[in-house]
Write a structure and sequence with these properties.
The protein has about 425 residues and is of the alpha/beta class. About 30% of the residues lie in helices and about 20% in strands. It is built from 15 helices and 20 strands. The protein has helices at about 70-80, 100-110, 135-140, 155-170, 180-185, 190-195, 205-220, 235-245, 255-260, 280-295, 310, 330-335, 345-350, 355-360, 420-425, and strands at about 5-10, 15-20, 20-25, 25-30, 40, 50, 55-60, 85-90, 115-120, 145, 175, 190, 200, 225, 250-255, 300, 375-385, 405-415, 415-420, 430. The strands form 6 sheets. It has a 6-stranded mixed β-sheet. It has a 5-stranded parallel β-sheet with strand order 10-11-14-15-16. Helix 8 links the parallel strand 14 and strand 15. Helix 4 packs across helix 7. It is globular. It starts with a strand and ends with a strand.
C-alpha cells in the first residue's frame, strides 16, 4: 500500500507519503522478506491510511430480531463504514444473560461476520435489574464487558454488587444512564420544544442522577465504569470532576448527539427519536467540548436498526433508535474536523485508542507486527446520505439526504480486503 498519508493515533504518527507492507495478515517490515516477494499493492495516492476503527456500541439484533438486522448485514455495514471491530450489545431475544447465548453469537459470527465482533453479557438476568447474571460464565464464554444496555439497573444495591463482582473479574461495566422514574413516558428532551410540540418530556436529570450514582459507586468499589451515550452538560460536568479525582470512569458520545438537537423533531419525524433523546444546543456544545479536551475518550454509533414499518407510525408509538455504522466517520468529520475543532489524529483516537483502552483490547495500530486491520479514507469525497444504499437492513437514519464530505473507500481485516469502493478495484495490482 503506497503513496498515502499515514495517521496512527496510537503512535502519534502522521507521515506522508507512506508505504505499508502486509504479509500473513500483519503489517510487516519488507526488509525481512525476499526482494521478489509477491506483494499486493493498492494505490493510496491522495488517500489517508488509518488503523481500522472500533465501534463499542452496536446492536446486531441477533438472536431474535433478524427482521431488523443480522450479524451479516450489520458487519457488512460496519466494513463499509471503516469499522473493523464491533462490540455487540446484549439486548437481544433472548438477552445475552447466559453463556449459551454468547456461544450462539460467537458461532454465528464465525460463520457470517465480515468484521471482528466481540459480544457483551448482561448485568442482570433478562435485563430486568433484579438478579445478577452469571458474570464469570459469561466472560468465560467470550463476553468482554457487562451491560444491560437499553435498560438501566435502577437498584443501587444491585449495581454496587455488580461493580464489586466485575472489579474482581477485571471487566468493565457499561451503563445506560437513565432513572426511569423520571424518564417514564418521555419521548424527547423535556424543555421548550417538548412543550411546543405537545410531546411527553424526558428530563436531563434522569441521565445525570444515574451518572452521579455510578460515579459514587465507582469511587466506593474501584470498578471500571463506562458511561454510555452521554447527552447532557450536567453529565459532562460530573464526569469531568470524577476524572480530576482519578476515578476509573470513561464515557462515550454518539455522532447524532453532537450533530443534532431537539429542534430536529419539529416535524414529528420518528427517524429523530432515539434513546437517550436529542438535547439542546448548549448540551451539544458541551459534548463537543468534552471530546476536544479529552474528558470523553470514545465516540460510538449506538447503531440501533429497526424494520421500516416499525418507524412508519406516530411519533409516540415508534421505537427509539437510529442507525449509524455507515455515517459514523463522515458525521464526525463534519462536526469535529471540518469545523476545525479537532485534528484527524485526535478525532480518530476516539475511534481506535479510546475504545480499546476501555475494553482492554489490543489498540489498533499500523506498527510492525500489528494485525493488518486498516482503512483508506478519502477526505475529499462528497456524498449524500441515501439509506436505500445502506448495507444495513436498518434505514432509520436521522441524516437522510444530508450532504457529507469524507468517506472510507477500502477496509482490510487481517490483510484481507473485506470492502472497497468500486473505483479502487482497477487500481489494485500485483507487483
Amino acid at each position: 500500500m503506497s503513496a498515502g498519508r499515514l495517521i496512527d493515533p496510537l503512535l502519534r504518527r502522521d507521515e506522508e507519503p507512506a508505504t505499508l507492507y502486509v504479509a500473513e495478515g500483519k503489517i510487516v517490515d519488507p526488509a525481512n522478506y525476499p526482494k521478489d516477494f509477491p506483494w499486493t499493492k493498492i494505490d493510496a495516492q491522495g488517500l489517508i491510511i488509518l488503523p481500522g476503527l472500533i465501534d463499542m456500541h452496536v446492536h446486531l439484533r441477533e438472536p431474535g430480531e433478524s427482521r431488523k438486522e443480522t450479524i451479516k448485514t450489520a458487519t457488512m455495514a460496519a466494513a463499509a463504514g471503516g469499522i473493523t471491530t464491533v462490540v455487540a450489545m446484549p439486548n437481544t431475544i433472548p438477552p445475552a444473560d447466559h453463556p449459551d447465548t454468547i456461544a450462539w453469537i460467537r458461532k454465528k459470527v464465525d460463520k457470517e461476520a465480515v468484521v471482528k465482533v466481540y459480544p457483551t453479557g448482561c448485568i442482570t438476568e433478562e435485563r430486568l435489574g433484579e438478579k445478577l447474571a452469571p458474570f464469570q460464565s459469561l466472560i468465560q464464554a467470550g463476553a468482554i464487558a457487562l451491560t444491560d444496555d437499553g435498560s438501566c439497573v435502577q437498584n443501587a444495591r444491585i449495581m454496587r454488587r455488580a461493580m464489586e463482582y466485575a472489579s474482581v473479574l477485571g471487566v468493565p461495566i457499561l451503563d445506560h444512564c437513565e432513572d426511569t422514574a423520571l424518564s417514564d413516558g418521555g419521548v424527547m428532551n423535556e424543555g421548550l420544544w417538548s412543550t411546543l410540540l405537545g410531546l411527553p418530556g424526558w428530563p436531563s436529570i434522569a441521565e445525570e442522577l444515574i451518572v452521579s450514582r455510578d460515579i459514587l459507586l465507582c469511587e466506593k468499589t474501584g470498578a471500571k465504569i463506562h458511561l454510555q451515550h452521554l447527552t447532557t452538560e450536567g453529565s459532562i460536568r460530573l464526569l469531568r470532576d470524577a476524572k480530576k479525582r482519578g476515578l476509573p470512569v470513561s464515557a462515550e458520545v454518539c455522532p447524532h448527539h453532537i450533530a443534532l438537537t431537539e429542534s430536529a423533531l419539529k416535524e414529528y419525524d420518528p427517524r429523530f427519536k432515539m434513546n437517550p433523546p436529542l438535547r439542546t444546543e448548549k448540551d451539544r456544545e458541551a459534548l463537543i467540548e468534552a471530546l476536544v479536551d479529552g474528558t470523553v475518550e470514545v465516540i460510538a454509533s449506538d447503531h440501533a436498526p429497526h424494520a421500516l414499518f416499525e418507524k412508519e407510525v406516530e411519533f409516540e408509538k415508534a421505537p427509539f433508535g437510529v442507525v449509524g455504522l455507515e455515517t459514523l466517520v463522515a458525521v464526525c468529520l463534519k462536526e469535529l474536523y471540518f469545523s476545525k475543532k479537532m485534528d484527524l489524529m485526535d478525532l480518530f483516537a476516539k475511534l481506535t485508542v479510546g475504545p480499546s483502552r476501555v475494553l482492554g483490547l489490543e489498540p489498533p495500530s499500523l506498527r510492525y507486527g500489528s494485525a493488518a486491520d486498516l482503512i483508506l479514507l478519502d477526505l475529499n469525497a462528497s456524498w449524500q446520505v441515501d439509506s436505500t444504499a445502506f448495507f444495513s437492513k436498518g434505514k432509520n437514519t436521522p441524516f437522510e439526504g444530508m450532504h457529507l464530505k469524507g468517506r472510507v473507500v477500502l477496509t482490510m481485516i487481517d490483510g484481507k480486503i473485506v470492502w472497497r469502493e468500486k473505483r479502487l478495484v482497477e487500481k489494485q495490482k500485483t507487483v
